[in-house]
Amino acid sequence: MSHSIALMQEKLLNTPAPHLYSKRKSSWIMQQVMIALVFPTIAAIYFFGWHVLVMVALGIGSSVAFEYLYQKWKGIDITISDYSAALTGMLIGLSLPVTAPWWSIIVGSAFAILIVKQLPGGIGRNAFNPAVAARVMLKVFFTPWITNWVTPQPDVVSTATPLQYIGNFSRAVPEHMGHGEFPGLWDLFLGIGLGGNVGETSKLAILLGLIYLVGRGIIGLKIPVIYVTAFAAIMSIYGNFSFTYMITHVLSGTLLFGAVYMATDYSSGALTPDGKKVFALGCAILTALIRIVFNFPGGVGIAILIMNGFAPLIDKHFASRIYGHKKRPAQEHS
Amino acid sequence: MLFQFNRKREGAYTEERKSRTEHRPIEEATVPEYLMFPLAMHIGAPAKPTVEEGDYVKLGQLIAEKDGFISANIYASVSGKVIDISDQPTVHGKGPCITIKNDYKDVRAEPLFKQGEELSQKAKLALIEQAGIVGMGGATFPTSVKLSPPPGKEIDTLIINGAECESYSTSDHRLMVEYAEGLIEGIRVLVEVLPVKKAYIAIESNAHESVAVMKKAIIEHDHIEIRELETIYPQGSEKNLIKTLTGREVPPGGLPADVHTVVANVATTYAVYEAVRLGRPLTKRVTTVSGEPIKEAKNLWVRIGTPINHLIDECDGFQSSPGKMIHGGPMMGRPLTSGQVPITKGSSVITFLEKGDIVPAERTPCIQCSECLNVCPISLQPIMISNAYENGDIDEAEKLGAMDCIDCGNCSYICPSKIPLLENIRSAKSAIRARKEDK
After folding, report:
1. pLDDT tens for residues B257-267?
2. Is A122 left (phi over 0), alpha (psi -120 to 50) or beta?
3. What CATH number was assigned to the domain covering residues B1-28+114-359?
4. N or C: which end of chain B has fewer CB within 10 A?
5. Average pLDDT over every residue of B320-342
6. Over A183-252, what HEC string results?
7. Under the phi-then-psi rule, with left for phi > 0, alpha for psi from -120 to 50, and beta for the rest, what region is B68?
8. Which of residues 102-141 of A touch B (CB under 8 A)?
9. Do A333 and B377 touch (CB under 8 A)?
10. Which residues are listed as membrane-spanning (chain A) (predicted)?
11. Average of pLDDT values for B261-274?
């Protein structure tokens, strides 16, 4: 018996503790976010047709291809198997209206992967959310093509979105919108008869995605809940406590999609527990300001990008107080 | 838990892996022919041998005495002959050990005091010191030193640590289930010695059986209270336990006494009972021997000095090839490469891990998931310290609180990119210490 014990001991590894590791891997986490995005994808297919699948496939395919080619060209490790590029591509595909030309998705992917993600050093190094940056860039430079909103079939007609009627200093929800009636709250929630970016139409699908992400432990409720409630509070006050005005704002545009899938992005968001709260609050305030003050709807993408820029500063300032210490590290060393 | 608002928590939900031994009564391990007693089986100065090669010793006879304030006596756990005093494998590599050849007669030395003798508070404290009792949860800090706080740091709270948060370990749990009465006696002694009005027994909620038994055992003792705590690693870490139970935080670099608290492990408390009520010095302890490669995982009463190889035999050897042998649990234990290493006062569990369990996946870039911040029980930013260290910025690592790290291992455990966070933080600590010494 001791002989076998001695033999076995020759092969014992003596690396330091901890000796066990959680089974979770980065690639698994990225896969989970993609699975959570399947809910809005299905809703988008339901409302806008199979072309949505082409958009998503084009987003994923081009993002992965750009990452692969860039890394091949640079002679660095190929990281496409971590699903991060695929996730970015999926987000881009879902971030555009169904009328977006195919090349805009590829331009968006190239911008997201090459400029925003790989230039600063690849996964985890990017200060800005690649997919959000891509959609904002596309909106700014390619507006006639990209924001040609359409309502779903059968009659594909250009329409305005609800936000164009409740933004621009408007403090109430109008009864009419263009030629038709202003959509009801249930329609806004379910995504019935709405134009807009394909992935953000059904709020129900987005909430299902949120439940999946929180249940899987990928994100906490903190960022989405603070973002949405703080935004709702500001809009309530601005809209003279009109519930309809507030809820219409909450259910319109990219707010919920952004709060669940974009503001929660690891790399571009805040790292510290309190920093995340400040980050979400900042997103809410900026989104509200942009919607109230400027003459364009949306604002979620720009708000998130601006907060992305502040994230390192927020983290530095709001890093948790360490056990036994009296103050936060930033205050202790100032 | 499913709908967390916040992913920041007091630790990590590590795998418990206690099922093989948690319901298994403690068995008396057979005694080997040769036993090794490392002179440094506690924190502080190594003990000084009081015997020489060739001496005959009795079970319970002093073989090495404490050398300085922070040090502890060591007693023979068998009767027999001292055959060697030299460097032997220990948990810390190699160190001086007294080797005794067992004569299998268990001839007992005189007890520490005569039964029936009335003991003063001071005498009881002296007995705890004399019996060589140290923190048996693994820290091995001399208990008598903990019980004699400096003036101005009067103790008002005693915490009995039964929060056995390391995976596999069930030695404290079984001790509570099977030896509740002795344990309560031990707590009574500690309460008298300190003296305090209130004692808490902290137990993790997964240990239902010990909670139930201890609740019954304390019925007639109003000053003892059971606190059932969440099962989360490292619930049993001294600093976190103090905060959970009293709301107080031990200051950086400080001791529990700084916040008027003493934490004593369950096994330590039982040793106090044996010393002060029965006059027996510390010569044995309960050790869990577990892990998937072990054929019959067991909780064993082990004579201190028993080599681990003997315990492997005691558990019918291996059923699969072990990849790691650990003194302690998988989160904080020390890896061993020699089965000659003896069980010491701090050996609560010997863990064997399968090869498939121990190899971390390949390191990939950090994705900034912030899980290491979420699971850090003292709210550090492990990845930031690790980055600072890897960038050679020791200053920044220190500012970020590297020195506060309690080495629990949660950050490395949870990291989905398998970054050696704890290893880097430890290296940063060494660099900070080295720099201070240079100045």
Report:
1. 999 999 999 99
2. left
3. 3.40.50.11540
4. C
5. 94
6. CCHHHHHHCCCCCCCHHHCCHHHHHHHHHHHHHCCCCCCHHHHHHHHHHHHHHHHHCCCCHHHHHHHHHC
7. left
8. 122-125
9. no
10. 28-46, 52-70, 91-116, 221-239, 245-266, 300-318
11. 97
A175-200 pLDDT tens trace: 666 556 677 888 888 888 777 889 99
Q: Is residue A162 pLDDT above 50, yes or no?
A: yes
Token pair belonging to B4 = 């967390």
pLDDT at A153: 45
Contacts of B175 (CB under 8 A, 6+ apart): B26, B183, B266, B267, B270, B286
Whether residue A18 is preceded by a cis peptide bond, meaning omega within 30 degrees of 0, is: yes
Report how far apart the first and last C-alpha atoms of chain A are (Å, whole number).
63
Does B370 have pLDDT greater than 50? Answer: yes
Does the CB of A320 have a partner CB in chain B at under 8 Å? Answer: yes
Q: Which of B367, B85, B64 is nearest to A24 (CA)?
A: B367
Most confident segment among A5-14, A78-87, B351-360? A78-87
Cβ contact B317–A4 (<8 Å)? yes
Domain ranges of chain B: 1-28+114-359, 371-438
Domain spans in chain A, listed from the N-terminal domain onward: 29-141, 162-319
A5 vs B277, residue with greater confidence: B277
- Burial per residue of B132-164, b for 16 or more beta-carbon CB atoms within 10 angstroms, e otherwise: bbbbbbbbbbbbbbbbbbeeeeebebbbbbbbb
> Pick the residue with more confidence: B17 or A146?
B17
**Residue B376 labelled as part of a binding site:** yes
What angle (nearest 5°) sits at the alpha carbon of residue A19, between those of residues A17 and A24? 120
Of the partner residues A4, A215, A320, the one whose CB lies closest to the CB of residue B379: A320
Q: H or E stretch including A106?
A: helix A102-110
Tell me: the pLDDT tens digits for B144-196?
999 999 888 999 999 999 999 999 999 999 999 999 999 999 999 999 999 89
Helices and strands (H and E) in chain A: how many: 16, 2
Eight-state DSSP code of residue A16: P
* pLDDT at B2 (0 to 100): 47
Is A219 in the B-facing interface, judged by CB distances under 8 Å? Answer: yes
- Residue B366 counted as an annotated binding residue: yes
Minimum distance, in Å, between the CA of residue B363 and any CA atom of chain A: 10
Contact A221 B312 (CB under 8 A): no
Of B135, B79, B73, B71, whose CA–CA distance to B102 is shortest? Answer: B79
